[in-house]
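In the previous chapter we treated chains in isolation. Here, by contrast, the input contains two separate entities that must be folded as one system, with a combined length of 941 residues.
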Amino acid sequence: MKSPSTLGKNIERIDARAKAEGTAIYGADIRLTNMLFCKNVYSERAHAKLLAVHIEEAEKMPGVVKVVTGKDIPGAKMFGELFIDQYAIAYDRVRYFGDVIAVVAAETQEQANEAAKLIYADYEDLPVLASPKMAMESDVAINPDYPDNICGEVHVNKGDSEAALKEADVTVKAKYITHFVEHAYIEPESITAVPSPMRDEVTVYGSMQAPYNARISIHRMLNIPMSQIILRPSSVGGSFGGKIETAEANAIRVCLIALLTKRPAQVTLTREESIRESYKRHPIEFDIEIGAKKDGTMTALRMISFLDAGAYTNMSPPVAFKTAILGVGPYNVDNVHSSSTAVLTNNNHTGSMRGFGTPQAIYALENTVDTLAAKLGMTPTEFRRKNLLKNGDVSACGHLMDFHEVSIRDCMEKAAEAIDFDRKFKQYKEENKDPRRRILRGVGISTSMRGASVGADGNGFDVARVLIEILKDASIHVNIGLVEIGQGLRTVQMMMAAEGMGVNPERVTMGETDTSRSPATGACIASRGTMLGGGAIADACRGLKTILNQGLSMKYGDDIGEVTYEDDRVRFGEHDLSFDEVVSIAYGYNLTPAAVGTYSVPVIDWDEEKGFGEPFYSYTYSCHAAEVEVDLDTGYVTVVKMIGCHDPGRIINPQFAKGQIYGGLAMGQGMALIEDLGHSDRTAALSNLNFNNYLLPTAMDVPDTNMPILNGHTDPRSAFGGRSLGEPATEPAAAAITCAVNMALGKPGAINELPFDLERVMEIAQEIDKQRDIDAASVAAGKA
Amino acid sequence: MANIKLSFILNRKPYTVETDPGKRMLDVLREDLGLMGTKEGCGVGECGACTVILNGKAVTSCLVLAGQMQDAEILTIEGMSDDEIGRVIQDCFIESGAVQCGFCTPGFIMSAYALLMENPTPTRDEIRLAVAGNICRCTGYIPITDAIEKASKILAK
């Protein structure tokens, strides 16, 4: 009988004790002898030629050791993960208010701060393009590589959506708009660079989600070999996709200072600096049209979206890929056209953020679906029951879904049941008609299918690697570069390594990510950590077993037959050895039980030209349901309860999975209702630079009754059966809440701009009141 | 400002430091005393990551001036591990999945400690209110409320 697996258990998070005791070291906690403190100086223009940066006064200030500008960068002047177009320190132009024009390094933070105030620049103003519309109409190119300011275009085509819309019995056309959203990791960015006294080498610590990408940029810009750039992320205080490019820019700056001064250098952003400089979630405008037959069969879907990329290309093209492709949802629809266009502006650049272009699209799609359902006289669940994908269907992008359990219908039923959707929908719809009722109630439901890992736009380069070594005491040490950013990945990797070797998890030790010890593995992005890391770990475990088996063959002869590793025991033929014995046999023959593991996502069949095929290797299915109350007199929306039902493949650690869902629901709630950076579409500035006016949901706002439901089905396309959950956990949340609010107001699709602030809800409420008066008057007139 | 001598009881031990009285308490803890468990997330008293206990009350140490530490009794996360109640709260945070990225965790634990000192048997709503000044972006709060509720039940026994 197969023994119970490590997987599926609530194994304690390996970093929890240090974090709960306050001893875990985050970027800003690092203190080193002789360390310099740095301060960034930001651009005072959103778009200008940078004529000169005056640093002379600052250089004379007490304690100042070094001031650098863009001219001090010895190598390439720009960096980027996929598209090289971002300044670490601007030198000829500034493209947004978050560009840094100089960095001061001093003996103390106060001295650096004081000196930074004396730095100023000469600018020649350029037109500020503060929205995609302005940028597309302008003949000014923000980046000369993109003369029309368009930096990415992706489309999907299936069937003939135009003809199908004409033939449809019922159609709905709508517009939806979303806003900038801040990641709001509670730890602001902090990076420390430590130069080696022995050679041109630098070690970098701090809050980094993608250390291998940073290594490439530091190498290109500072002209030192990649082998002599060592990145060791500290405990990362939240990231959500946010500690990539901004952290990298700061890493380049402090590495430059460390190498020039031969002293350790640290930069820690204030919250205002973090919000000013960091990239955001893309604001997107959607024009959407869907059509159906009278019986409710969805026949056509057109979604045209424009994404505000901000000042740098950053991740906009791959974000547009997910908006276009995953934005069409988990529906079985034959005629689809979806196109996403990313446009450069002088706003904060936009990039990776939990969901990566999909929470916006799902919000647009699901509200439109509700509008269509209402027009058809169907409830939201009735319409979805008829149209959601099932096993063997072809997805809206052309993917034949015959390779794993397509559980989206089941996810929806479980979420609907948990919130008692069908009963409440009926009941609240009736109750809300009562004109004396000032608090309206609503329920909303939304669905998504999330591509696991990068997808076809990364065809061929989506790879993860690991190095695992078994030591003489039979402990198993895992070096992996997929970073723990708070989600519990390090513990999940440990569990998978134990499973892969058939040993107790206590044997497995996890190294801190260190680029000089772990092979390059891509970034911990795209919810790829569990599936890709798992694939690499499984591969390394196979390699290790081959080496251990070689030792067994040397001792017991070539005909030992099949060897099984299970229960911390190794069994073959009549033999039943402890794992320790097998390891000492291997060492006894001078074997080296160390192995690298590699996993590449197979190349998938996606026709980019046509916009059709297999955009992802696998998918996670999700359904969120929300119940809300809307106060007609104040416009205030209270979220009463949310359900998050997900199928992320096999559940590796239920507690961590639930943790992702709880957090994802809360993040979606903030996005839908309150989070607002106060962006000016005139000046391109953000006015809400700290948490006193960028409001986040608190424990009092997030319903205590929120409920995660794990609906895991082991995925044959993943080594340990698990896929991804980080992003799916937040993806449909804003949609579910907005659908619920629009249902409460009795007007599906009525509020079509995020965030739903009080004023917008009030406006609709007043319209409802007016309509009620008219209705009442006509009833009275009728009676008279 | 000229440095002054500040004497206070920190984590049940007497301390005297010579520092700028205009400094923030957060900086005295982190920079002068090297106690890095108290975190800075916003600097304006909104996120609660720098929460410590000053004379029995949970305060955001980024808004407290060093001068106010004079003669005060102060507890920080570093004083929790060898405190009976603090230890139980830490254990419950770990067991309940209330720790993810962990950056907000010390602040939440201090708010929880202040609550349980004042009200050993809080309701869930009282717990939520007590930590409403702490922001967590990872956990969606429910595991934190679970942890504090669990701690209160263990301590009531």
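Residues 28 and 127 of chain A are 38 Å apart (CA to CA). The two ends of chain A are 82 Å apart (CA to CA). Compare these points with the single-chain example from earlier in the chapter.
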